[in-house]
Amino acid sequence: MIRLKRLNIGTLILMVVFLWFMVSFVIVPNLELIKSVFFSNDGISIEKLKSIINSKRAMQGVKNSFLLAITLPITTTIIGIMEVLFLEYYDIQGRGFLKVAYMIPLVFGGIMLANGYLFTYGSRGFVTTILLTVFPHMNPAWFRGFGAVLFLMSFACTSTYIIFFRNAFKNIDYQTIEAARGLGSSDFKILLKVVFPTLKPIFLTCTILLFQTGLMAMAAPLMIGGRDFETISPLILTFTQRPSSRILAAVLSLFLGLMQLVLLYIIQRNERKGNFLSISKVKTTIKRVSISSKPLNFLSHLIAYAFAFINTVPLLVVLIFSFTDYKTISSRHINLKSFSLENYRLILTSDTAYRPFVTSVMYATAASIIVVLVMMVIARFIVKNKNKFSTILEMLIHIPWVFPGLMFALGLVITYSHPQKIVFNNVLTGSLVIMLIAYVVVLMPNTFRFLKASYFGVDQSLEDAARILGAKPLYSYIKIVLPIILPTALAMLAINFNSKLSDYDLSVFLYNPIAKPVGVVIRSNSNSEAGIEGLALNFVYSVFLMAINSLVFFFVYADGKNTIKNLFNSRKIKNES
Amino acid sequence: MITFKNIQVKYDNFVAIPDLTFDVKEGEFFTLLGPSGCGKTTTLRALAGFLKTSGGVISIDNKDITDVSVHERQVGMVFQSYALFPSMTAFENIAFGLKVEKKSKDYIKERVAELAQMVELTDEQLAKNVSNMSGGQQQRVAIARALAKKPKILVMDEPLSNLDAKLRKSLRKDIRNFQRKYGITMVYVTHDQEEALMLSDRIAVFNRGKLDQIGTPDEIYNHSKTEFVCKFIGDANYLSVRDMGSIGLNTNRFDNSNKFYIRPEKIYLSKEKRGLIIGKIISKEFYGMYAYYKIDVNGVEFQSFQSENNADDLAVGDDVSVFINFDDILSYSDEVKSDD
Q1: A178: containing domain
Q2: Which domain of life is it from (chain B) (predicted)?
Q3: Do A258 and A367 have their domain in common?
Q4: Mutate which of A3, A454, A468 to disrupt the B interface (most B C-beta within 10 Å)?
Q5: How many domains does one find in chain B?
Q6: Cβ contacts of B112 on chain A, cutoff 8 Å
Q7: Residues sharing a CB contact under 8 Å with residue A290, sequence separation 6 or more, in sequence order
């Protein structure tokens, strides 16, 4: 029997509302999508599946997606590992600069990055314009199709290696390397035989994540791939826009859902195999080795800086051109007179210019606050109540993880394009609220996992201590538990805000025309029809988004709060002395 | 002062404590001792009110507190991890219970100062965040916080288990001196035999949810009632009836006993061959203040601790006289079922 005696009236109401929300916006849309694919008026039918198989364009899209999904892990792994080695293993000059350059994809990604690449290497891009003056007969559309998408994504996805692989690499016990060296192994052999085998589980996880990213890629194939290289996600978007082909979009998204399930299964199996743990009692940190061969050392420096250059150029181009006038942006020729603050003035003063940014900030803020607050209560409830109800609740929260956002967005569009009783006969498709709902749903699983882990980290005896001293549950939650989980809650707030601020993949399906989010605007501004003003605005949007992303990373990952505190303290000590 | 009468604690269908009865006197340092999972912490948590008992009565000063809520029992608790609130200073931790009781600011200040003096915490330490304090300081804050509301009883759940050996030894003394000085009734949980022997007025030895013996440290160590207590409380040489015969010790005086134990320090060795039992030293480990010997007597191996004065004279291969006092032999029979 399920025991719910600890539920107070407030929690009970929240649970009822939450269950309604989950059923309405997680279960029903996915079921509707499946129904629309496999059921017709005559009952079960596979006609729609056949129509996909017969569609040349759709099948080419599936092939392209698989091609990208298979090649991306290979190229990114090569680049990612090299970047990590340049930062953590080999003694490369200017490591500080390289570190910053390799971290650029963390703050400059998605639709922003695709836009940056397009302006840098596209047919009318800055670099292309320079190249055309040197090679007038070259094809201006050289940066297009599979190769361009793979190039862009390979560098953009190195963030996976910079976060996961680098951390794991830094945790390797240096004594094992020294032991191998003492036994006569060369540095390269040590990497292959000692270091990399230890990191095998991380390799596998990164590979699977990259396969998934390649398969579901949206922004890069859409903006750089063009008609030459269409993949599943942009095709779903195209098919969704026409009601007649919406069913094709549904079939494709179901296919993505199926792939996601397979990949999640592989990841879980991989995790279950466990990791190689250091058995060293006294760990020593990795010491960088200098490359003794001069030609090899030169080559390493060359590659290291080439990678940094590739990451930096689109960002610098966006940053510099955001400070130039329309004429310069149009001609791509820059001189000292080109610089102006006009684009920034426009964004800060023109209603139409700043509205998308404000819209995105509002949606991202609202979604991240709602999801963090609700998950704080739900996670606490689940941690404190181990019964069938809490198990079901936990499973429900993880559903958005199992299905790709695209499939879920399409499910929402299909389900709520006509009145539905479960939402009191309202039509939600095209409304202002549907995008917020979608943001909240996709942010739930991750937020829940982090908050749950944080609650588990709270020593039960702290609450017992408060209880024995007479504190009521709410008082001890506010005074004792909340300060402990607050850093995680704030970090999740910031990360969620960041991830939805420039969102394109979900927003493009669900936005209301009167409240276009910035991700969608950047995409439409990158079209040649949008004109120079749109391009100029894109630069400023990108700069603002980058600045916000960087701030969040600084505070959440780089312990920014303590860095600033230490800075002030050291100044205070200096002044006092 | 504290009475446990026929207490039973169940976790779903598992009976952790089947039937527990004991009492603790006022001002006593009472220790619940036993291996992991024997029910000592369960007993302590039942006393503090964190666990609901499924049978029996717990009373303090003859007042039934079995169904009284946690904070009304007048029990202060020091947790294994100290459970200090990490976001607060030492002062705020100590004052927490008083603030909950909505005491005036002046009273809180005065009471915290009084407690700080008791546990020897300075004003500077009181202003520190507890995360920045040493293990010893944290323990003092935990004790002061537990005493802030003037409880009748102070309970401690393995408060020294997370500390290094040196600090543990020094804090043991602090706890003992503090309890003696202020005469607080204390119920202490530990699995460390040495700690229990050193600190306690009386010890209750738990074995699988049941009490095997309650007694003073001397009674527990030198007159262990059960084979489990004998083996758990310290090292002992086991001798079967046959072994006793082999070394020439008559078992008739031990009634129906068929298992015999002798503590290593109760076996005296001498080079002078004037004893009845003669053995050979087969190994020696020198530990500074004492030496540890293995002796073979007619195929029966003994362990013996000897102080350094004696140890100097004895070497591996020496024939030695082995002296055993019959009163030092602890005897048990199979009839007394031990769960060990």
Answers
A1: 51-321
A2: Bacteria
A3: no
A4: A468
A5: 2
A6: none
A7: A90, A91, A297
